[in-house]
């Protein structure tokens, strides 16, 4: 099924499950081939016969209803049914009863469904922005498509979903009826007659058998089309027959005989000539015999000459289509793609004429003509690179709604290919979303058993190579959007299937082989697996010797071979391989004839290979030549080509290198100008950020002021990396891949220039970008609800009236925030489903009954003769994949509209302190109040310098900044220390190192190093040379870089009685200054305690000390006459804990936790039934929570790849609203956790305290840890505990 049937399949895939049942009929049509092949003629033209013919494409996937993407009631209450309420319906679903017996029941169900709108409270009857629905799905939702910011009725959409599901059920039953008639026993085919080997025509028995079976299949298709409202199945079977050589030869024979009996005045002469030519063209596509193409060209050319009053003949469009088809194949063979411009003109004019006539009978042939126009435009585009060809093709298909209704495989291939190419030119995410949408049903084209269960040796679908190649290319581009290596794995898999599905003698085989080599190279660059590079070289080395005649214009295999060879030579320092790669790229460039967009790519790759050689030889001639070729590529690249920015980035980098060698001011100026243009241009944010960083690196030779100009631009770009249209894990991957330490570098430059306030501002802006994005979206929700604008700035011209803006902004902010964690929009916890059902039991009852019908239908269909084991599993897998693509598209669409309403990167900053410059922050009274309690110390670490900025407050001077240089501290040492501790902790857990060994060999030397290079100079400034403190200082540390992964609070000399930070300061950690102020300014809330404990978590080691912790909590709460809420063991499920957290103000987690190194947002607390992830915690509003004790492992362990983002459970809690928390830096012993918890709660809830003060938590932890240290407990037990927040 075509993905455009999506509105009907949010809960039901009945039609898509049954589409494959056509295999029964179609299989019978083909089963006789093997029995008859031997009797076929052995003459030259019958040498093309083949025994096996593939069947039509397999299962398709339904669409997710838009209502589900907006958290509506109907989406929440879907669940499986036990079927107990279906007694009245079950007899009607027996195959003998048929569809008619069930229609009354389904209609009665629908009557209840239509009453749902009255049952849903008015508060839930909201107008939902259409922007939350991908563009390709909006056609199914009533809305004003001409209005920017249009909305739709969310409740009515939910009701429509039920109606669509019911329609699916009725359609499925009709299909069952149709197959019931079709599967009645048929007489066996007649025996094969003996045919002489010298016969020049197919066996008549074979022809009759095919005709009979085709007639029966046509009858079945007619019934199915009536049930489904589309004739796509008939189109699909016709496509299959076009790939059946036996059938085509038989048809050609009949048409030849007819033509011999016709005269020039015969009424159907032109139609018959065209049909004959069409069959020969289809034969040519199978066997590639030039005589077929030549003869077909003659036939279709004659067929379009006038015959009588032919100007408005209903058959003229199809005859023009056949002629254009022949011209396209001829252009491929002769490599004369310029001729297609004339063909496109003729086809376009024909379409215009028949569009004006608007004859209903001409719609099918007009669609066929539009499809051929699209094919010609694609071939012409590859040859000339004019994007207008793609636009023309898409406009023609859109005018005839091709792709808006169920479509055959060829249409899906063309649509996905057009949108892919448009995406590559413009980087408009709408196009890649649509391309991926159309490829969903091209995933399994290489699986013949989907349609021919009795023919496991049958060849795949005739469009399989093309569909699989397009799918591979689309998934490779999806990687560029979401940075998920799994997309490249899928891309390589589909590219391999495309090669296997194509005969090596096929003219397009070189294209499929080259595509596989290129996606392997793509994956190598992403994953650095040398095996991919080696295979790429091997495949492209073979492909470059294959003929290209008959194929589309494509990136030459020899160019790919040269680039891959040069890349391997660069990695292995093999100059001979680089030389050979350059040689092949030069040959490919010279031989290539085609579009300038491809030619520019070849020259870019040649420049890259030459630069590799320069890096080896230091020969500036290679560098000069590389710059010349890259500049030539830029000149050739079309102005609208998105690749121009990356070309400029390459040119700027090479100019910078040459300037550093020659000292040329001209090269320096050109490099800076080129890179600045990219950084300040309209390219993708990652490319712009790379350009800004390269600009900064180039300018660093001219001093910190020049460097700052570039870094300030980079700071403006960073929020765009964290675009709300990507799920937060995608934002994180993108930031990690860029490895851009913009904030610390900018701060270092500002400090060097003496601009300390600016340095703090740069640190705040360049760090914790992802958290800031989340907070901004939450602010957008609040602002939208309040009805005020973010900054009073004028709205975009495209926005609706000001009265409607707040509601739309609020809804979009809520949607983006709710779905940023990457959890499926369509997966719902069973407990949550039940909870939602309690809100609207009538709606839930109807939903359950309809779901029960669907589930029962699935069971009944498994007993159907055409069902194969695993069919539903494959369909469910495809639906799951489609759901992921749908979610991406929905986020892209919503974020685009959100951005047009509010350029929130700048405007939210006026209302959100997260973007307020430090100069404004220092005027806030809360900062002075905070600093009266202690010092905030920002630790900036960069390869150029390391510094501490101490914020203090005095009555006379107010807030001031003290600068402490840290010349002995180095970024390299810090990275080494963090890695050493990580390795040591791993060895300890594996038993390869003892506790005391870890302490003496790793922890003490590292803590001494932190003391000597960082802590001691700071304490010297604060306390003087004797380090005298009557009471410990109160310090909030704000570390950057690897310092965020180290236990600063435990730094000390560890020599005799010499004091360290444990004796001199009560330490806390903060991710940003703004987060500290937000916690400091938060209002206090009444005491309400929640304790979550997991002494025995399924799949994890037991934690016997958890009970001791919980007992200590009970005792402590009893002292202040409070009864805590406890969720222990099986009661502590993900849903129940998530529901309870916002309702309490003090939280305690005593369980296992995990810091996920591959996906930091999958870090989690382990509940009884699964992980409560950081991504899920981000969705909770914990603004009331005053204190949280995270008594679990690794709750404050960040990600070494991006330490400045503070992606860990403790930070997640704080950004969700928790004011203050106790967390752990690495794995902790449960007994140590129980001891610390008992001491902290004993202090906070001591006798005489009516209500505990969360602001005392840091000091309580300090005392508890100090007791463990004084008692001589091993450092590994007490060092990992730390305090986060106010």
Strand content: 5-15%
The strand count comes to 16
Q: What summary fits the major beta sheet?
A: 6 strands, mixed
Structural class: alpha/beta
Shape: globular
- How is the largest sheet built, in terms of strand order? 9-8-10-14-15-16
| Separation of the first and last Cα atoms | 57 Å
* pLDDT < 50 stretches: 1-99, 189-200, 449-457, 782-806, 824-828, 904-915
Helicity level: 55-70%
- Mean pLDDT across residues: 79
What does the radius of gyration come to? 35 Å
Describe what you observe in this structure.
By secondary structure, the chain is of the alpha/beta class. The chain is 57% helix and 6% strand. The chain is built from 52 helices and 16 strands. Helix 15 (363-384) packs antiparallel against helix 16 and helix 15 runs parallel beside helix 17. 55% of the residues are buried.
């Amino acid at each position: 099924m075509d993905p455009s049937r999506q509105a009907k399949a949010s809960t039901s895939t009945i039609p898509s499950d049954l589409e494959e049942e056509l295999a029964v009929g179609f299989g019978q049509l083909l089963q006789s081939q093997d029995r008859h092949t031997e009797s076929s003629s052995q003459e030259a033209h019958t040498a093309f016969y083949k025994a096996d013919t593939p069947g039509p494409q397999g299962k398709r996937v339904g669409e997710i209803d838009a209502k589900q993407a907006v958290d509506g009631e109907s989406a929440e209450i879907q669940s499986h049914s036990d079927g107990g309420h279906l007694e009245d319906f079950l007899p009607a679903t027996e195959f003998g009863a048929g569809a008619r017996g069930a229609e009354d029941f389904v209609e009665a169900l629908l009557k209840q469904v239509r009453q749902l709108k009255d049952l849903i409270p008015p508060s839930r009857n909201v107008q939902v922005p259409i922007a939350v629905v991908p563009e390709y799905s909006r056609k199914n939702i009533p809305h004003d498509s001409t209005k920017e910011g249009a909305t739709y009725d969310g409740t009515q959409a939910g009701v429509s979903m039920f109606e669509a599901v019911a329609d699916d059920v009725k359609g499925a039953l009709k299909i069952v009826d149709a197959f019931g008639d079709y599967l009645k026993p048929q007489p066996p085919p007649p025996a094969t007659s003996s045919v002489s080997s010298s016969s020049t025509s197919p066996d008549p028995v074979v022809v009759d058998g095919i005709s009979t079976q085709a007639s029966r299949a046509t009858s079945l298709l007619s019934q199915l089309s009536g049930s489904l409202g589309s004739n796509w199945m008939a189109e699909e079977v016709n496509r299959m027959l076009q790939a059946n050589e036996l059938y085509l030869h038989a048809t050609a024979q009949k048409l030849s005989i007819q033509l011999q009996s016709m005269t020039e005045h015969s009424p159907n002469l032109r139609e018959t000539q065209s049909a004959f030519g069409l069959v020969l063209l289809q034969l040519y596509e199978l066997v590639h015999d030039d005589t077929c193409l030549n003869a077909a060209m003659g036939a279709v050319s004659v067929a379009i000459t006038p015959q009588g009053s032919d100007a408005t003949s209903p058959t003229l469009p199809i005859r023009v289509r056949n002629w254009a088809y022949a011209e396209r194949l001829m252009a491929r063979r002769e490599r004369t793609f310029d001729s297609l411009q004339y063909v496109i003109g003729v086809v376009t004019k024909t379409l215009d004429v028949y569009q004006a006539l608007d004859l209903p009978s001409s719609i099918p042939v007009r669609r066929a003509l539009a499809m051929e126009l699209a094919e010609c435009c694609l071939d012409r585009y590859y040859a000339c690179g004019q994007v207008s060809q793609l636009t023309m093709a898409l406009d023609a298909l859109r005018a005839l709604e091709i792709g808006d209704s169920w479509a055959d495989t060829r249409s899906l291939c063309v649509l996905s290919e057009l949108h892919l190419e448009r995406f590559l030119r413009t980087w408009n995410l709408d196009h890649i979303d649509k391309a991926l949408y159309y490829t969903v049903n091209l995933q399994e084209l290489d699986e013949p058993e989907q349609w021919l269960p009795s023919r496991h040796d049958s060849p795949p679908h005739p469009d399989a190579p093309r569909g699989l190649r397009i799918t591979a290319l689309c998934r490779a581009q999806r990687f560029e959007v979401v940075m998920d290596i799994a997309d490249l794995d899928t891309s390589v898999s589909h590219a391999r299937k495309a090669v296997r599905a194509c005969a090596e003698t096929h003219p397009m085989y070189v294209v499929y082989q080259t595509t596989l080599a290129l996606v392997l190279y793509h994956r190598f660059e992403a994953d650095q697996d040398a095996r991919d590079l080696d295979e790429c070289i091997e495949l492209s080395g073979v492909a470059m010797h294959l003929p290209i005649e008959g194929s589309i214009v494509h990136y030459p295999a020899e160019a790919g071979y040269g680039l891959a060879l040069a890349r391997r030579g660069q990695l292995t320092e093999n100059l001979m391989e680089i030389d050979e790669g350059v040689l092949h790229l030069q040959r490919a460039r010279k031989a290539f004839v085609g579009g300038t967009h491809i030619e520019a790519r070849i020259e870019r790759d040649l420049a890259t290979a030459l630069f590799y050689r320069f890096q080896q030889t230091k020969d500036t001639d290679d560098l000069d030549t590389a710059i010349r070729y890259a500049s030539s590529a830029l000149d050739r690249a079309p102005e609208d080509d998105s690749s121009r920015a990356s070309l400029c980035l390459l040119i700027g980098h090479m100019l910078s290198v040459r300037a550093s060698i020659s000292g040329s001011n001209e090269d320096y100026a050109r490099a800076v100008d080129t890179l600045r243009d990219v950084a300040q241009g309209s390219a993708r944010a990652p490319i712009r950020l790379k350009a800004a960083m390269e600009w900064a690196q180039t300018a660093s030779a001219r001093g910190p002021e020049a460097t700052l100009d570039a870094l300030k631009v980079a700071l403006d770009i960073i929020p765009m990396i964290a675009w709300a249209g990507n799920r937060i894990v995608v934002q994180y991957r993108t930031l990690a891949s860029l490895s851009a330490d913009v904030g610390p570098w900018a701060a270092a430059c500002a400090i060097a220039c003496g601009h300390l306030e600016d340095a703090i501002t740069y640190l705040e802006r360049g760090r914790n970008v992802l958290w800031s994005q989340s907070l901004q979206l939450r602010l957008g929700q609040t602002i939208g609800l309040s009805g005020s604008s973010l900054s009073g700035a004028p709205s975009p011209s495209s926005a609706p009236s000001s009265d409607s803006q707040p509601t739309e902004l609020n809804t979009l902010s809520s949607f983006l925030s709710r779905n940023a964690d990457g959890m499926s929009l369509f997966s719902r916890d069973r407990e949550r489903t039940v909870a939602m059902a309690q809100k609207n039991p009538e709606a839930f009852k109807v939903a359950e009954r309809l779901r029960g019908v669907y589930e029962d239908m699935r069971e009944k269909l498994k007993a159907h003769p055409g069902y194969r084991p695993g069919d539903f599993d494959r369909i469910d897998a495809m639906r799951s994949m489609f759901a992921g693509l749908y979610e991406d598209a929905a986020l892209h669409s919503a974020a685009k509209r959100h951005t047009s309403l509010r350029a929130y990167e700048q405007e939210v900053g006026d209302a959100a302190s997260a973007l307020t410059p430090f100069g404004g922050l220092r005027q806030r009274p809360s900062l002075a109040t905070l600093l009266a309690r202690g010092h905030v110390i920002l630790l900036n670490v960069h390869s150029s310098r390391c510094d501490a900025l101490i914020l203090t407050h005095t009555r006379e001077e107010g807030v001031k900044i003290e600068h402490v240089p840290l010349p002995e501290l180095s970024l390299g040492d810090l990275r080494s220390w963090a890695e050493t501790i990580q390795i040591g902790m791993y060895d300890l857990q594996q038993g390869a190192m003892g506790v005391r060994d870890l302490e003496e060999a790793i922890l003490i030397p590292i803590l001494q190093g932190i003391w000597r290079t960082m802590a001691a100079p700071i304490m010297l400034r604060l306390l003087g040379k004797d380090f005298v403190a009557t009471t410990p200082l109160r310090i909030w540390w704000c570390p950057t870089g690897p310092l965020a992964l180290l236990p600063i609070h435990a730094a000390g000399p560890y020599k005799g009685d010499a004091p360290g930070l444990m004796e001199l300061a009560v330490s806390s950690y903060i991710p940003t200054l703004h987060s500290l102020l937000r916690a400091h300014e938060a209002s206090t809330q009444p005491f309400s305690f929640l304790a979550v404990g997991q002494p025995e978590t399924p799949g994890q080691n037991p934690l016997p000390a958890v009970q001791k912790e919980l007992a200590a909590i009970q005792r402590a709460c009893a002292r202040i006459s409070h009864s805590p809420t406890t969720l222990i063991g099986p009661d502590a499920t993900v849903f129940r804990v998530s529901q309870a957290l916002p309702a309490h103000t003090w939280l305690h987690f005593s369980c296992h936790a995990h810091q996920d190194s591959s996906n930091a947002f999958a870090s989690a607390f382990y509940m009884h039934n699964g992980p409560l992830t950081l991504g899920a915690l981000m969705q909770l509003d914990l603004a009331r929570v005053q204190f949280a004790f995270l008594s679990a492992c690794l709750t404050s362990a960040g990600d070494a790849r991006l330490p400045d983002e503070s992606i860990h459970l403790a930070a997640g809690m704080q950004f969700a609203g928790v004011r203050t928390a106790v967390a752990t830096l690495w794995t902790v012993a449960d007994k140590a956790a129980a001891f610390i918890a008992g001491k902290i709660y004993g202090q906070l809830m001591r006798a005489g305290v009516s209500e505990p003060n969360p602001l005392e938590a840091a000091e309580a932890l300090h005392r508890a840890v100090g007791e463990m240290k004084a008692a001589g407990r091993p450092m590994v037990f007490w060092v990992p505990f730390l305090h986060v927040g106010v």
